Amino acid sequence: MKRQPLSGKPGARKNPVNPVNLVSPAKPGVPGAPDSGGLVYSTEAGRMCPACRQPLNACQCAALAATARAADLAKGDGIVRVGRETGGRGGKLVTVVRGLPLADEALATLGKQLRTACGTGGTVKDGVLELQGEHRDRVVALLTAQDYRVKRVGG
Fold it and tell me: What is the spatial distance between Cα 81 and Cα 30, in angstroms, rounded to a whole number?
């Protein structure tokens, strides 16, 4: 006599595998468990910071980033390097000032002074001051007058 499967259907398995049971639920702090993505909004505190998972009004991420930037500035060699670049700007020449040991606000103020003295536009990006055009000689003279150790780099 031939045995019939338990479900009554030919070819059915005795121990069916449930695909839902193969995925473990998200458990915070458990290695190997998938991350739930974190809390984005709370009815008690409002919007939450995705990095530190604190309410935005109590977030410390910006302060930590400013502290890390200040520590990086302290590690520099104290020499301001003035050069020129054309890469990534459609062939336009840009005077670049790197290595200024200043906080973001002071760097923006110095950038405003240099742009006014050179009569040109420019910007501050990631601690690097960019001035439109060839102004290396004038920038070196202005920074030397403000007691910075300046080095002219590049061609």
Answer: 48
Q: Is this structure's pTM higher than 0.70? A: no
Over residues 34-79, the pLDDT tens digits come to 455 565 566 676 777 877 877 877 888 877 777 776 666 656 678 8
Query: What mean pLDDT value characterizes the chain?
Result: 77
Question: Which domain CATH number covers 82?
Answer: 3.30.780.10
Please give the residue that has the higher pLDDT: either 71 or 98.
Answer: 98
120 shares its domain with 135: yes
Residues in the chain: 155
Among 131, 109, 106, CA closest to 118: 131
Q: What distances in angstroms separate CA 117 from CA 91, 105, 136, 146, 152, one per listed residue?
A: 24, 19, 12, 13, 18
Find, among 148, 146, 108, the residue nearest to 125 by Cα. Answer: 108
CB atoms within 10 A of CB 97: 27
Structure tokens at 118: 């050179």
Q: What range defines the domain where residue 55 resides?
A: 37-75
Instruction: Identify whether residues 131 and 83 lie together within a single domain.
Output: yes
Q: Are 46 and 63 in the same domain?
A: yes
**Using CA atoms, how far apart are residues 32 and 24, in angstroms rounded to an integer?**
9
Distance CA 107, CA 142 (A): 14
